[in-house]
């Protein structure tokens, strides 16, 4: 059995890791919903690339942190493209700063997008998955959720929270053959990390046994594995894609 012809939704699919996941799933014959919040141009470019490569997909704009927007969008996707069978909770932001100076709003924004967004989208998708007795939910965490990082208490908390969300959902949905897993990337070359100075990048590379930052495609490969039938007996797990930077569980 393959996942060809199934419908996926990738939150934050317009750029970076999400874009690579969209391309990879489309190459497996999945119909890919590309979610974005503001950058329509990037989302359109991702869709055009999918179509150039012979795949199919569609755009869906909504803010993952907006409960009613999420509900409406999933309803619309179900009506127009079929229910979401593979959900990749990838949308994420950073608002860095040392705890002593971090504003409450920076905490709220990061938790709302990175953690609550995954809760809202999963909630919107899970009923149909349970009814169909098949589904895949893949949450994009981060090595920072496992190691912590000075200047990122908000981001580390959200990313660690995703691991707890994953394990609890995995237990709840397993009786209906819906699997829920995490992918925890290390440092990946995207817009999110492009602002890091050369000196910081060198310091990061020194902590990575494989010696380089990763690519969005490295992460997409792990997501594709978890979405496919080969991972049918895996749930509640985290795949670490970090060049060896963190080797724990
Ligand atoms: P980018 O900054 O390159 O892209 C972020 C994506 O998220 C964009 O598609 C953006 O949409 C979307 N997005 C942001 N906020 C919202 C929202 N409220 N609702 C819907 N979509 C939203 O990020 P990366 O590709 O680097 O990161 C993707 C995920 O991987 C994130 O969860 C990140 O935390 C995680 N990660 C990244 C690492 C890295 O080194 N890059 C390392 C570990 C984890 P739009 O284009 O419209 O702005």
From TrEMBL:
Name the GO terms of the biological process aspect.
Answer: fatty acid elongation
Superkingdom in the source lineage:
Bacteria
| Quaternary structure annotation from Swiss-Prot or TrEMBL | Homotetramer.
Q: Which residues form the active site?
A: 155 (proton acceptor)
For the Ketoreductase domain, which residue ranges apply?
6-186
Sites where the protein binds NADP(+): 12-15, 90, 155-159, 188
The EC number(s) this enzyme carries: 1.1.1.100
Reactions mediated catalytically:
a (3R)-hydroxyacyl-[ACP] + NADP(+) = a 3-oxoacyl-[ACP] + NADPH + H(+)
Task: Quote any Pfam family the record assigns.
Answer: adh_short_C2
Tell me which UniProt keywords the record has, alphabetically.
Fatty acid biosynthesis, Fatty acid metabolism, Lipid biosynthesis, Lipid metabolism, NADP, Oxidoreductase
Protein name per UniProt:
3-oxoacyl-[acyl-carrier-protein] reductase
């Amino acid at each position: 059995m393959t996942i060809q012809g199934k419908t996926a939704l990738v939150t934050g699919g317009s750029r970076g890791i999400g874009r690579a996941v969209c391309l990879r799933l489309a190459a497996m014959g999945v119909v890919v919903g590309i979610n974005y919040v503001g950058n329509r141009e990037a989302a359109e470019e991702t869709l055009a690339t999918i179509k150039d490569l012979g795949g199919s997909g569609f755009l869906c704009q909504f803010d993952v942190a907006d409960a009613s927007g999420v509900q409406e969008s999933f309803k619309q996707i179900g009506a127009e493209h079929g229910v979401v069978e593979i959900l990749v909770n990838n949308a994420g932001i950073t608002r860095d700063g040392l705890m002593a100076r971090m504003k409450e709003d920076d905490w709220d924004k990061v938790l709302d997008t990175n953690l609550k967004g995954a809760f809202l989208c999963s909630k919107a998708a899970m009923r149909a998955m349970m009814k169909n007795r098949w589904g895949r939910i893949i949450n994009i965490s981060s090595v920072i959720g496992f190691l912590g990082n000075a200047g990122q208490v908000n981001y580390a908390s959200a990313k660690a929270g995703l691991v707890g969300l994953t394990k609890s959902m995995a237990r709840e949905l397993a009786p209906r053959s819906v699997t829920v897993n995490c992918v925890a990337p290390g440092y990946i070359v995207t817009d999110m990390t492009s602002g890091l100075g050369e000196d910081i990048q060198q310091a990061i590379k020194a902590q990575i046994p494989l010696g380089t930052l990763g690519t969005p495609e490295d992460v997409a490969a792990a997501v594709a594995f978890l979405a496919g039938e080969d991972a049918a007996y895996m749930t509640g797990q985290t795949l670490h894609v970090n060049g060896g930077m963190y080797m724990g569980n």
